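Quick one, T. Sequence first:
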Amino acid sequence: MCGLAACSAENVASAQKAPDNKRPNIIYIMTDDHSYQTLSAYDHRYIETPALDRIGNEGVIFTNSFVANSISGPSRACILTGKHSHINGFLDNSSVFDGSQPTFPKLLQKAGYQTALIGKWHLTSNPTGFNYWNMLDGQGYYYNPVFIDSTGKKQYNGYVTNLITDFSIEWLEERDTTKPFCLLVHHKAVHRIWAPDVPYLTFYKDRSFPLPENFYDDYSGRYAAGKQEMSIQKDMDLVYDLKMLDKEGNIKTKYRSSYISGEYGRMTEAQRKAWDAVYDPIIEKFQSANLQGKELAQWKFDRYMQDYLACVKSLDDNIARLLKYLEDNHLMENTIIVYTSDQGFYMGEHGWFDKRFMYEESFRTPLVMRLPQGYKAHGKIDQLVQNIDYAPTFLEMAGVSVPSDIQGVSLVPLLKGEKPKNWRKSLYYHFYEFPGEHAVRRHYGIRTERYKLIHFYNDCDTWELYDLKKDPSEINNLYGNTEYKKLTEKLKKELIKLQEEYKDPIVYGQR
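Structure tokens:
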């Protein structure tokens, strides 16, 4: 990895402001909790996503794209600032984002870009650096959600993925066409509790899916993995997550009332009628079956996947709608279109849903880009990239100087088809939210092209080491194995080097 100062200096030197009509527009589309396993540009096992695939097929697909902190708010703060959580100050979802600090939308706005944010924000404070913003209230709902703009709150009838696309197209229609723009389209989908739109309710009905090989992981040799509370078998709520709201009230669960007062309770009469027509027979069949043990686990996994994938299908169709608008209005040639998620997600791997861990499924995230004219890269890009890299990339593409304190590295050389010899060889990760929902312990770690070293700390002190080539499912913890002693020492030195480079204060107490 090139030194941060050197990379920033190179970016500043290369940044030259182009005329407004030559500077590329930026459309940054981000979903919530969309796993790379359910985007067919990466994996064809579960679903086909032709619109999302189109972005990558007509541009580039990053095969080694990762986050800095796998949880919604912190990940978004890393993206906006180009800095790790300990620098931008948003460590976990209880934090409040300091909107006075520099962000890439602010810098683009200052350089003459029109900037807009539509959809999920989830950073507590109001957005800054945008000419226009219309954000979901908090986490947002799938059905009939409340949005907040500079004038206040308003509830809209409809489905959230459709509404966010509607509002995005409306903004594009009404923008000043003499100026370049940066539009952030932030979808709620496919966040828990995976409530499909009415036309998609039966899209995956009755379909069964093969369980991941490590679904029945016993977490041997991995203390923190054994202490989590994100098990599909044990922690996934039959009513809240899987929609088993029986009218008699016999299925009593921890979050039953939250489902009734939340997503289900806010539906219109017509929406609820369509919903019940699909789910009531499933509830009746489930009650009659009286499933136990592994049969129940398989059923819960299938129900989870059916709803999750139906939400992805709706999302993909809306991406197609946005791409058609861009094509019809001749905006494809000079616009970079980016699609990613705020982090990855577990689709039953290790028996889990959710994210947070540094294990691959939540640490890794999809990232595809369709590039404007002048960029030669096409196909797969295999270098290690991280979501702190987005900010310097957008700034350099726009001809805006990249501040020297940004910790990410511009991806522009990769987008030009270059293969820099000094590209980073390792990534740093740090998760802070414990105690917290799902009980994932605090940890930090390093990932190279082949190996991963993780340190869980705070209420415990355990290390994990994985050979990702031999053990891609991260089952066999090699830490303490004498055969890997020299490798462990080398990785620890590189870990400390990254902590010092990124100025993470934890390094001073963990040598």
